[in-house]
Design goal:
The structure holds two protein chains of two kinds. Chain A folds into three domains: 282 residues, no CATH class; 112 residues, no CATH class; 60 residues, Arc Repressor Mutant, subunit A (Orthogonal Bundle). Helices cover 39% and strands 20% of the residues of chain A. Chain A contains 15 helices and 16 strands. Chain A has a nine-stranded mixed beta sheet. In chain A, 37% of the residues are buried. By secondary structure, chain B is α/β, with parallel strands linked by helices. Chain B has a domain of 246 residues: Amidase signature (AS) enzymes. In chain B, a hairpin with a 5-residue loop joins strand 10 and strand 11. The chains are: A alpha+beta, B alpha/beta. The interface between A and B is large, with 32 and 45 residues.
């Protein structure tokens, strides 16, 4: 097999999280009854005109900022003319001449830990099309998605592998979802990626014949699709064959790409400036406002958590769980044990939330009660075992945690002297086990500990009791 | 007893004092329309609904000058539950789900919609002969065109069927038919009136406007139509004003310009002669009138064709038979749906313009033609601005000739554009323009004069227009006083 240089570029469409559509006041929603989120503008009734949702501009500026793009100060929209039933006007309103953002980059970290920039050529605003469902020889159209605001982010042809594509898409998804710009749910279509793959012999050669892969349902498929396509093209070239520029789709079942259509030369979209929407001037104030609204992004969170003593694994888990991370961030100004806080959140609390299918904000765990909980755990007033017993109440009632503990009869003996006298009594009564321990049978200490807990009816703080027991035994 | 040939204020008093009721006016309007049926001014009559509305108004207070008065709307203005065809087969049975913003405004004044008037198909034409429903006829001579594209609105006003009509003007379509039929037609500044609900022909040029028998009534109607509309981003946010406020005022010291282009060789000597008479009158009454040159006016027609047809090719793409309107039968696939529906649904002129427009935007052509046209258009705007630094208003003839025969050949598209050569520069610059009748030719066909104002200076145009109207005191009723 010969060696080729692969070149990959990615185009990503992301649906913006706005209340209403971009050019009409219909609701922007997902999973509703077909055509229930439409009005005369979305359906391109004669005489209707587009309006412009300002929140779209705001979110697009925010996205452009996060993606390190330059921002266009005077921009307009363009009409892309083509006949297809998925676009009611038979033209799409998009940006051809003046994309809102250009010349940006995203930084990814490769498996070897190296940082690498993925360059963004441009990002522009456009409207989503309607969804078509083909049933036999009929086609059903659902215009709920028509007019949902999109940004399209186009990279330079700067990647070489499926792995890079995967890292880029993961990074993009992380940035845009943490930026509150989009849900980035690939399965619901709120993030969609198309990749372009070509091969050439030498860096100095012009780019090779391009195949575009569409309909990619997941990030891992994007990686696989690129790899399979590189493989396919390599084989063709090795066999001395060639191919026509084409559009392929990723087939989930095959785990491979299949041909959709050979590209016709010179698609003519007859672009021209949209006369129904005046030029948009993007002011310094608009940019400042958008910047101010950027929430703390993942890299910054990671750095912050490490600083606060949160373990690496917890840091990763927290950043992966947006709502817990946001909740955690409300503590940042407090004096507390962040390690304990992260353990609690990602341990028992996360398990509870998963089981009950709840968000942390839907529980009664206010910041104040959480701080109380951390304190009780830290000073051993509450054991992990105890916590399991009262967790439901802690997360469902508004009572003080100490009150809940009292009601449940949880009262930990945290007095050293009291525990010490009980331990001494146990040592006296279990000479045999003490001897076993001395003879190196570590198991014996567990037995002794069990006796202590039995004697105290489980009220002795286990960690404390263990410490005292160990030191008592060593003193013997 | 006839009322609809009276002035608006007189009718208003009669309504207010309950001597007549809105239903009397509605019934009279329909009698007139029936009597003038031959004019083919209407595509759809709104008789049942109009009578019902008139009845309902009897319990309401007569609270404004337009209350209870019948109005006709060009059939490219969208009316809820009332057929809106754009004079096209493709929308022959189209019943809209909503009212255009102007229609809401008209209804808010309790005006009564009488019907939808005939026009060139999708407003593409200058004699209303491209209508799928046949051409309307000129009340002054039924063998002649009444101009276009707002031909039906012009005919019904000239015939005195009703007091008010709305037209739309993309390249002269209000002013030119107004000139051919001896009425007052105003195309306001681009953005003055919301375009929401006007079926788009060329978005950057389209503007609706009032068509009436005199200047005052025109200004009164305009008062009701204007205003910023959040549904139309190109509508202008201007302080409220009364467009009638300078009507009746003297014009002494007014500075008026005539671009040499508007009095060029293409203009017939009869028309030119009449305009010159008005110029003498104006000078006599203390205005200054200068002939000036405005650059690029001679390019306006070319620019218009590029911009209007380019935009039209895109605007009319939505008529595909999928969501509304006519759909061709026995189609096999989606390609056929488009080809057959549009092939059968549109008339020749519309198809011609869509084809030319598509060509003009194709590939590199967009840069060579469309973008270049937009840039020259900006230059032309600047030239007009230069003129308005020194002059209050610009005047000239509206049309190169008076109305010609319905039977004249239609096969030369350039001829149709020549009809509009004097009115198109106004659209290109987005300026307001108005036609007022200033006399008749030897066959007693009306001759019109155009008054062009600076942006948003419609009030000043009405001032000059009403002054001339009063001085000339023409009998503008076809066939004499009714």
């Amino acid at each position: 097999m010969s060696n080729y240089i692969s070149t990959v570029g990615v185009e990503v469409h992301v649906e913006l999280k706005t209340k209403t559509k971009i050019f009409s006041n219909s609701e922007n929603g997902y999973g509703q009854m077909a055509n229930s989120l439409t009005n005369v503008v979305d359906l391109a009734y004669p005489g209707t005109l587009p309006t412009l949702n300002e929140e779209v501009i705001n979110l697009a500026i925010r996205a452009a900022t996060i993606l390190n793009c330059n921002i266009q100060r005077k921009m307009h929209f363009d009409r892309k003319n083509y006949f297809y039933p998925d676009i009611s006007k038979n033209y799409q309103i998009t940006q051809n001449d003046t994309p809102i953002g250009y010349d940006g980059y995203v930084e990814i970290e490769t498996s070897s830990g190296e940082k690498e920039k993925i360059y963004i050529e441009e990002m522009h605003i456009e409207e989503d099309t309607c969804k078509s469902a083909h049933r036999g020889n009929r086609t059903l159209l659902d215009f709920n998605r028509a007019g949902v605001p999109l940004i399209e982010i186009v990279t330079k042809p700067c990647m070489k592998s499926g792995e890079e594509v995967k890292l880029y898409l993961e990074k993009l998804r992380e940035l845009l979802s943490f930026g509150n710009i989009s849900d980035c749910k690939i399965e619901e279509g709120s993030m969609r990626a198309d990749v372009n793959v070509s091969l050439r012999k030498e860096e100095s050669d012009p780019l090779g014949i391009k195949a575009e892969i569409k309909n990619i349902g997941s990030i891992s498929n994007a990686k696989l699709g690129v790899e399979k396509e590189i493989e396919r093209q390599t084989k063709l070239y090795d066999n001395g064959e060639t191919f026509l520029p084409q559009t392929r789709r990723f087939d989930d079942k095959l785990g491979d790409t299949v041909l959709m259509r050979v590209k016709e030369t010179g698609n003519d979209y007859r672009y021209f400036p949209e006369p129904d929407i005046p030029y948009v001037i993007i002011t310094e104030e608009m940019i400042e406002k958008a910047k101010k609204e950027i929430p703390m992004l993942p890299d910054e969170r990671r750095e912050k958590y490490k600083e606060l003593g949160v373990s690496d694994i917890n840091t990763t888990k927290l950043v992966a769980n947006r709502s817990l991370s946001d909740y955690f961030n409300t503590l940042l100004e407090e004096k507390t044990n962040f390690k304990t806080a992260s353990n609690l959140l990602l341990g028992d609390i996360a398990a509870y939330l998963n089981k009950k299918e709840k968000e942390i904000t839907e529980t009664t765990l206010t910041k104040e009660r959480f701080l109380e909980l951390i304190k009780l755990m830290d000073n051993n007033t509450l054991t992990s075992k105890n916590l399991k017993d009262i967790l439901n109440e802690v997360l469902e009632s508004t009572e003080k945690i100490e009150e809940i503990m009292k009601e449940k009869g949880i009262e930990n003996i945290t007095n050293d002297d009291e525990i010490k006298s009980i331990i001494q009594k146990i040592i006296e009564e279990n000479k045999e086990s003490v001897n076993d321990y001395k003879n190196g049978h570590d198991r014996a200490i567990k037995y002794l500990m069990g006796q202590v807990m039995k004697e105290t009816k489980g009220k002795a703080n286990p960690k404390l009791a263990m410490d005292i027991l160990t030191s008592c035994l060593q003193e013997l | 007893m006839k009322y609809l040939n009276k002035g608006i204020e007189e009718i208003h008093e009669l309504l207010k004092s309950k001597i007549i009721k809105p239903i009397d006016l509605v019934e009279e309007a329909f009698e007139n329309i029936e009597k003038n049926q031959e004019l083919n001014a209407y595509i759809t009559l709104n008789k049942e609904e109009a009578l019902k509305t008139a009845k309902e108004l009897e319990d309401k207070e007569v609270d404004n000058l337009l209350f209870g008065l019948p109005i006709a709307l060009k059939d490219n203005i969208v009316t809820k539950d009332l057929k809106t065809t754009c004079a096209s087969h493709i929308l022959e049975n189209f019943i809209p789900l909503y009212d255009a913003t102007v229609v809401e405004k008209i209804k808010a004044k309790n005006m009564i919609i009488i019907g939808k008037t005939n026009m060139d198909e999708f407003a593409m034409g200058s004699s209303s002969r491209t209508s799928y429903f046949g051409a309307p006829k000129n009340p002054w001579d039924k063998n002649k065109i009444c101009g276009g594209s707002s031909g039906g609105s012009a005919a019904t006003i000239a015939a005195r069927d009703v007091l008010f009509a709305l037209g739309s003007d993309t390249g002269g379509s209000i002013r030119q038919p107004a000139s051919y039929t001896g009425i007052v037609g105003m195309k306001p500044t681009y953005g003055r009136i919301s375009r929401y609900g006007l079926v788009a022909f060329a978005s950057s040029l389209d503007q609706m406007g009032p068509m009436t028998k005199n200047v005052y009534e025109n200004a009164v109607l305009l008062n009701a139509l204007v205003g910023k509309d959040e549904k139309d981003l190109t509508s202008a946010n201007k302080e409220e004003e009364d467009f009638t406020r300078w009507i009746g005022q003297d014009i002494k010291g007014m500075k008026i310009a005539i671009p040499n282009f508007l009095m060029g060789d293409v203009v017939s000597s009869e028309v030119k002669g009449k305009i010159e008479e008005v110029i003498s009158l104006l000078k006599e009454k203390g205005a200054t009138v200068d002939y000036i040159d405005i650059k690029y006016l001679e390019n306006a027609m070319t620019l218009y064709q590029i911009i209007a047809m380019g935009e039209a090719s895109s605007n009319l793409a939505r008529f595909d038979g999928i969501r509304y309107g006519f759909q061709a039968e026995n189609v096999e696939n989606i390609e056929d749906v488009y080809l057959e529906t549009r092939g059968q649904g549109f008339g020749d002129e519309v198809k011609r313009r869509i084809m030319v427009g598509s060509y003009l935007l194709s590939g590199e052509n967009a840069k060579v033609y469309y973008h270049k046209a937009l840039s020259i258009r900006d230059d032309m705007k600047k030239e007009f601005q230069k003129a308005f630094q020194n002059y209050d208003l610009i005047i000239g003839p509206t049309s190169v000739t008076t109305a010609y025969d319905l039977s004249d050949p239609m096969d030369d598209p350039r001829k149709s554009f020549m009809d509009d050569v004097l009115v198109i520069p106004v659209n290109m610059a987005g300026l307001p323009g108005m036609n007022i009748p200033v006399g008749f030719d030897k066959n007693h066909m009306p001759i019109g004069m155009q008054i062009i104002g600076n942006y948003f200076e419609e009030a000043k145009m009405y001032q000059l227009g009403s002054f001339i109207e009063k001085e000339l005191n023409l009998d503008l009723t076809p066939g004499g006083e009714k």
